[in-house]
Amino acid sequence: MSLAAEFRDKRVVITGGTRGLGKAMALSFARNGARVAVTYASDEASAARTEAQLQAIAEECMLIRADVSVRSDVDAMIGNVLRQWEHIDILVNNAGIIRDKLLVFLGEDDWDRVLDVNLKGTYLCSRSVVRLMIGRKFGRIINVTSPSALTGRACQTNYSASKGGIISFTKSLARELARFGVTVNAVCPGVITTSMTEHLDDKTKEEFLKLIPMGRFGEPEDVAEAVLFLASQRARYITGQILVVDGGLT
Amino acid sequence: MKDIVNNERTLHEFLKKMIVETLKLEDISAGDIDSDTPLFREGLGLDSLDALELVVAIEKHFNVIIEDENVGKQAFESIRTLATFIQAEYRQGA
After folding, report:
1. Tens-place pLDDT, residues A38-55
2. Contacts of B52 in chain A (CB under 8 A)
3. Which of 3.40.50.720, 3.40.50.2300, 3.10.180.10, 3.20.20.70 would CATH assign to domain A3-244?
4. pTM for this structure?
């Protein structure tokens, strides 16, 4: 079965879906026949650009402003999608932020905000769709973690803790939902060329490149391919796994 | 569904059948379940994932949402407590 046929009529929600990785995922799902709803936190300009691109190729699309760390926002967002599309087949918990600092300088707000968006957001969005997915005996939840969670990284205690939490969350939720036909997996993108990595200085970029056996940074599309695979019928017997997409970095 | 909920005996029978069918219990039929048999532990021996499946089944059949774990624990003591819980939810909703 081609991907286009596979995702036809599938309803996908991608959090943080108007920039970088999330945008690449949204466009890939749309290109392959899915209805795609993406959330964004605040960047209206990116949202407008992504909306225009999605409208050009998607069966149907929705853009919803929501803070994934706030339950009322998440409930309203999911409710909005369900009112229009009745159910959700695939949830990609992609929304994530960084606030890199040495621990000695890491304020409580830096800790809370990163944990809230990355980890609590994953919890809230997953919680809001699992009952539906269990009821329909089908669902795909795909989370996004990071090599920072696997190997650690200086200045990222908050970020790596949140992403490590996502790995554990993924494995535990997979066990809760396996018997209901709902799979829960994560992708672990390495260094990908997005706005989150643009801020790296040349020296850091060079250091990373030396560590990546493939000798290049990943493209958002490299990660989107992995997400589409995990969402596809071909991955039906895979759950609780972390698919690392990092050119061999870890 | 309101007729079923209002009649205690019918509701008990419905719930027993729902449990057997939802959980695909192989060695137990609806007729084998006593209304006061504990559903978990030493009773029917259901586990927490069975509970999750029942929470969703009750939502689907009765449109009653169990949000709180303690509420669920009390409701799932037995068929009788589950029936009482659903009837109370219906009365509140009415």
Report:
1. 999 999 999 999 999 999
2. 134, 176
3. 3.40.50.720
4. 0.90
